[in-house]
Write a structure and sequence with these properties.
- The chain is an alpha+beta fold and about 350 residues long.
- The chain has three domains: about 100 residues, Endonuclease III, domain 1 (Orthogonal Bundle), CATH 1.10.340.30; about 100 residues, Helix-hairpin-Helix base-excision DNA repair enzymes (C-terminal) (Endonuclease Iii, domain 2), CATH 1.10.1670; about 120 residues, Nucleoside Triphosphate Pyrophosphohydrolase, CATH 3.90.79.
- Strands 1, 2, 3, 4, 5 and 6 form a six-stranded mixed sheet that branches.
- A hairpin with a 4-residue loop joins β4 and β5.
- α3 runs antiparallel to α9.
- The chain is globular and about 70 Å long.
- It starts with a helix and ends with a helix.
Length: about 350
């Protein structure tokens, strides 16, 4: 099994900006743990096509962990805007400072786990890919490959899926432990990731070209699409709120949210709390007694809830005194997370049409 995966990876490895491919590894080129860590943080709950431009921008602007650690939070958060899951940006900056202070990344999963914001999967991925520790990082792709190879199902409950994940992780670790002494654990991890991403896909896996098709229990059963059997998803609740876009000439008022919580430390237009029910007085949280006009509604989906924001717009006098920061339209849009950008874009667009 390991030989088949290794041969396939040498021919079909994906070319990714943070990766050192098998040929380069054979030539003695070692992965940069900083770039591996940066990519793993960005790829959490985010697709490769969406994350790649951000990775390229960060790697160009801050090519080392020391440079990222020395950057201001304002610059880091602005560069992260639009990538989503903003607690990752806070953890990224905090972790960079910790790594810079200790003089580099720990070289095993145990040490990596001690870094702020680094969980079990990220630690295993960095340890395996950057340092060839024989530890299995189980992402969604590896989870799918292993669950099908051993036909590991569940009863569709949360408890059943947790038990299945433990079994999947155990088999993945068995593969890492079985590696010959001359093999690289990072190549195995990335080979299984690539196999899941390009061949053993969530729907309609291409079993005919899979190097492991003769060993796959799910294929032998005749229904590989069935695996993995995850817990049924719960209904996504909806929350309601308001965004107040205050315009002064060609500038927009933004405020920085508190450092903790959802969108912590990010720039946003002033707004109301996000609640399960629509407020009786939607303008109660508006910043100042301006002539607020409802422009429309924007919607955004977070991990655990969907958000509906009523967007209000008002014009401020040239010398109006309000708390926050005035930014030009283009600068404001660049600094905002996606939900804030939607609200401001709607307000600016509404102004342009009148």
């Amino acid at each position: 099994m390991l030989t088949a995966v290794d041969r396939w990876y040498r021919r079909h490895a994906r070319v990714l900006p943070w990766r050192i491919g098998p040929e380069a590894r054979e030539g003695g080129v070692k992965p940069d743990p900083y770039l591996v860590w940066l990519s793993e943080v960005m790829l959490q709950q985010t697709t490769i096509p969406h994350a790649t431009p951000y990775f390229d921008a960060f790697a160009k602007r801050w090519p080392t962990v020391k440079k990222l650690a020395a950057a201001s939070w304002e610059d880091v958060s602005a560069a992260w805007a639009g990538l989503g899951y903003y607690s990752r940006a806070r953890n990224l900056h905090t972790c960079a400072k910790a790594v810079a202070e200790r003089g580099g990344f720990p070289q095993d999963a145990k040490g990596l786990r001690e870094l702020p914001g680094v969980g079990p999967y990220t630690a295993a991925a960095i340890a395996s890919i950057a340092f060839d520790e024989r530890i299995a990082p189980v992402d969604g792709n590896i989870e799918r490959v292993v669950s099908r190879l051993w036909a590991i199902g569940s009863d569709g409950t949360e408890k059943g899926w947790r038990a299945a994940k433990i079994e999947i992780a155990g088999h993945a670790q068995e593969l890492a432990d079985a590696l010959p002494a001359t093999s690289r654990a990072g190549d195995l991890a990335q080979a299984l990731m690539d196999l899941g991403a390009t061949v053993c896909t969530p729907r309609k896996p291409n079993c005919l070209i899979c190097p492991l098709n003769a060993m796959c229990a799910a294929r032998a059963e005749g229904d590989p699409d069935r695996y993995p059997v995850k817990a049924e998803k719960k209904a996504t609740p909806t929350r309601h709120g308001a965004a107040f876009v205050l315009i002064r000439g060609d500038n927009v008022l933004l405020i920085r949210r508190p450092p903790s919580g959802l969108l912590g430390g990010m720039m946003m237009p002033p707004g109301s709390a996000w609640t399960d029910d629509k407020p009786d007085d939607p303008l109660a949280a508006a910043p100042g007694s301006y002539n607020w006009e409802r422009i429309g509604e924007v919607r955004h989906v977070f991990t655990h809830f969907a958000l509906k924001l009523d967007v209000y717009r008002a014009e401020a006098a040239p010398r109006a005194k309000v708390e926050g920061e005035w930014l030009a339209h283009a600068d404001a849009l660049a600094a905002l997370p996606t939900v804030g950008r939607k609200a401001v874009a709607l307000a600016i667009g509404g102004a342009a049409k009148r």
